[in-house]
Amino acid sequence: MKFGHFDDKAREYVIETPHTPYPWINYLGNEEFFALVSNTAGGYAFYKDARLRRLTRYRYNDVPLDANGRHFYIKDGDTVWNPGFKPTRTPLDFYECRHGFGYTKIAGSKNGVRADLLLFVPNGANAEVQVLTLRNDSKKRKKLVLTSFVEWCLWNAQDDCTNFQRNFSTGEVEVLGGAIYHKTEYRERRDHYAFYSVNAKPDGFDTDRETFLGPDAGYDAPRAVLSGKAGNSVADGWSPIASHQLKVELKPGESKSFVFVLGYVEVPEKDKWAKKPERGLLQTNPAMAVVNKAPALALQKRFSTVAKAMREFRALRAFWDAQLSHFSLSGTGDAKLERMALWNQYQCVVTYNFARSASYFESGIGRGIGFRDTSQDMLGVVHQMAPRARARLFDVAATQFPDGSAYHQFQPLTKRGNADIGSNFNDDPLWLVLGVGAYVRETGDAAFLEEMVPFDNSPTDKATLYEHLRRSFHYTVDHLGPHGLPLIGRADWNDCLNLNCFSKDPNDSFQCCTNKDGKNAESVMIAQMFCYVAPDYAALSRLAGREEEAAFAEREAAKMEKAICKAGWDGEWFLRAYDDFGHRIGSKACEDGKIFIETQGFGSMARIGADKGYPIKALDSVKKHLDTPWGIVILDPPYRRYHLELGEVSSYPPGYKENGGVFCHNNPWVIVGEVANGRPQRAWEYYVKIAPAYLEEKSDVHRLEPYVYAQMVAGKAARRHGEAKNSWLTGTAAWNFVALSQWICGVRAEFGGLRAEPRLPAHVKKATIRRDWRGVRYEIRVENRRNDGPVRLEVVSGKATVDGTLVRAARGEKKVVLRAVVG
Ligand code: GLC
Ligand code: GLC
């Protein structure tokens, strides 16, 4: 069952009903001001940091779900409705939500009135712009009352939902003309305020939630809306809100538009205050000084007419079209595949922006940016925005410790490592090598390696970025266990494989609690990762003029491969790990958890033991034991009881999360492994099982957005097999883009050229792949005769050298067209 459709021409996903199985959301903003918006206009806005600088309030896990957002109420006689259906939930005659890149349009109509709402955050503006158009499609004159509504968050979102003894008393506002200003805590230590304005003179307003709602009422039936009479309230503590009320008369066929702006302003200390209160100003306490509104007024002026707002909207669309144009796929005859090529890149940008902070599954008040998470997110965006990837990699490296280990997370606003969670996740250092490798292969920017970067943000302890990578690599070499495999620490990529935890206390965090000295438990996955990144590290060493270190890396990788073949192979597949007692994890000898996906994926990507046929054997075991109609489960059989020696992985019910769910993050490792080992058609079969555009018809079971990946789909052991959770912010986005662009399309940035080795599925006979690389547009016209056959690459136009499947444009060339005949 579907709940909408792709409008490919408009580049939008069109949701046709407000009754989606879960709120289907989108993100606004790509710089410093961000907002989440669901298909019923729910969500919230923040500046830079979803925890520390939250602008509007959101209640999580609420009933009914997703009740907070930007609400527009339309009162037409006795009927009150919202164009986005919520919160009144008045049945609509027509409803549609269009999520596009960086914007959302919601349209609703009722009793002959149509409302069109456009929401976007323009580039270069700290504001959510809302253009609302009301049109009378009936034959009668309409007298409507339009009421807007947002609820302020008192800045720190964590405090806002816990510290009521303080924050019920602190709320302060000002009202002037069409603008409501939220200035709580501005007086003392803040240099910022927010406002909500409309480009018309309102007939009434409210800033006090209780006055607006009335006693006992919810957002579905506010007194100010039902009565059509705003309270003109000025908040004084409690819960400040912002609401405008406008009387709108429409002749048959007539329409009127309004521009609302939810803005954020910072004012330097010396300019904080206005000289005197403006005429007509209302505020919480008249004895108090008045905020300097000049920057807010400038922002309001920028969107003071619909024409101005729409100009900004067109600029935003042009921006996104350019942003997403550096890789594209066309002429395949498979619309779903081309949708994936586009929407997957959009998700990669969102994931880069938000890391794992703010979604409808991440509260925005929890963790900051993960060291390994963001290092992997780089893989999805380096081709689109290399300078931003460079800046982030710098920040990541600056949270590394002098011994090469790293803070597991850091805060985006302060860029400091998060001491609560600390360090000792032994895979972390290697992901940095992977991220920097991807960046340098993309850009050729070897100078980056010579940049000075601090350790643990210390102003005195600095070294070159190359030295950071060296310490990352050596951290693994220097922390090997009894079998010559890397010690796991608190966990590796699988956060829930806590082999040194041994916790019996429900108040312990599985990730932070360590009861063992960590000298025994080893990770086969880290060993494989080490082999996987070693060639990049060796190449980076050579770029940095360190031939000796490059040779060292190659020797160590060969040693590690030997250790894996000796102690990390179970006969039919790769083992997962050794526990603290030296027992095998992920072995046929185990009661549960006999086989894990991670080591089959990384083992086959790194082609460990290729001379012995291990990669193919491992991949065949994946097919046999882990494959399901909904993707590849992370392990099988799931753990049925709690294992003290394994930690969180055995705490989930069978089929969920790391205990046997389909982790969409590591399915692409198997997809890449299949292509790298010569089986592109099988790779494709896996690809379509989790690619959201191909799941659209099964949305009633899958339940989450068909335009983005979710982290997890319930596995075969779960009663709700096929049901997805945790959409949007997941390493799934970047890795599936790697699988699609670099392996299925076969276009990979290498240090010395662009690899073009398309391995498209058999049903795609022809395709055009466009890829910008180091300032040159490469257009590859593919003829796909037999997708596992040899690839012949030839230049059609433009000057370039071709060496097998590696191409490099001549100096000064801007466009190269190639023909690739496969099979
Ligand atoms: C709050 C605090 C309390 C303090 C009082 C006066 O009630 O909980 O500890 O004494 O405020 O500041
Ligand atoms: C989550 C974490 C990621 C981890 C994965 C598997 O997605 O963000 O760091 O690798 O779970 O446990």
Q: For the record, give the distance between the C-alpha atoms at the N and C termini, rounded to a whole number.
A: 38 Å
Structural class: alpha+beta
Cα shape: globular
On the 0 to 100 scale, the average pLDDT is: 97
Low-confidence parts: none
Bound compounds: alpha-D-glucopyranose
Helix content percent band: 25-40%
Give the oligomer, counting copies of the same chain as homo and different chains as hetero: single chain
- Major sheet size, sense and barrel closure: 11 strands, antiparallel
| Rg, Cα atoms, Å | 28 Å
| Strand proportion | 25-35%
Number of helices: 19
Order of strands, widest sheet: 1-2-9-10-11-12-19-16-15-14-20
Number of strands: 43
Q: What can you see in these coordinates?
A:
The chain is an alpha+beta fold. It is about 25% helix and about 25% strand. The strands form eleven sheets. An eleven-stranded antiparallel β-sheet has the order 1-2-9-10-11-12-19-16-15-14-20, with helices on one face. Strands 6, 7, 8, 13, 17 and 18 form a six-stranded antiparallel β-sheet that branches. Helix 10 (about 430-445) packs across helix 11, helix 12 runs antiparallel to helix 13 (about 545-565) and helix 12 packs parallel to helix 14 (about 595-605).
